Amino acid sequence: xxxxxxxxxxxxxxxxxxxxxxxxxxxxxxxxxxxxxxxxxxxxxxxxxxxxxxxxxxxxxxxxxxxxxxxxxxxxxxxxxxxxxxxxxxxxxxxxxxxxxxxxxxxxxxxxxxxxxxxxxxxxxxxxxxxxxxxxxxxxxxxxxxxxxxxxxxxxxxxxxxxxxxxxxxxxxxxxxxxxxxxxxxxxxxxxxxxxxxxxxxxxxxxxxxxxxxxxxxxxxxxxxxxxxxxxxxxxxxxxxxxxxxxxxxxxxxxxxxxxxxxxxxxxxxxxxxxxxxxxxxxx
Length: 284
Known about the structure:
This protein has helices at 2-26, 156-160, and strands spanning 30-34, 39-48, 52-57, 62-66, 70-74, 85-88, 94-97, 110-120, 122-132, 138-148, 163-175, 181-197, 201-203, 209-216, 218-229, 235-256, 262-283. It is mostly beta strands. It folds into two domains: 28-102, Roll (SH3 type barrels), CATH 2.30.30; 110-283, Porin, CATH 2.40.160.
């Protein structure tokens, strides 16, 4: 009987040691968050400033991560925002900590492309390509095609400038916060190429009266603000813009009398159109 107890005790010792090891392993909860959105959970064993981090993973292996690839270091799981747990059977079946940042990431810098759709009294689409230097400054080149339906102020000169334009401009923008959801701001300046005026041709059915309008473009600029929603690969946004477009027109109004004599009246006008719009965008 005594030998049986000794045998059982010998069996229980490895199990107890395994339990202690498992408990110790759960204390290994440093989280190394990378700039690409991935993360490592384990124990930081060495930090070489401006060089690399060494972390011991839950399985016992040690890897080195260059400091340039590290976004943040969390010394406690509970301090990390957006916690999520998943079951992993690759290391004995334990719950592995995975931060929500695996599914989204803030993009502090890098190349970007934005596509914006505009509506309200302006209908159009813009495509912007550029580089984001940091949270506060991104610079890009934009091109679009816009139809200015009802620009302000409501004067005859400005109404005569309503039409289609192709704006080509420099875009400067930035984020207010470094978070998954952040307000943003933008400025742009460039030139709007006039395509054609609305109601460019207008004739009566018998051709006795009509007019022809030539539209010319000019400097353009815009102020914008809105909200971005950062995801892992794409960043949708919703915002508002106020566009300023300088333009002018030349109108030839003619009238034919009963004797077939045609008289012309020429009208020139110019102004700065102010066009408010909402936009829905997506950034890559």
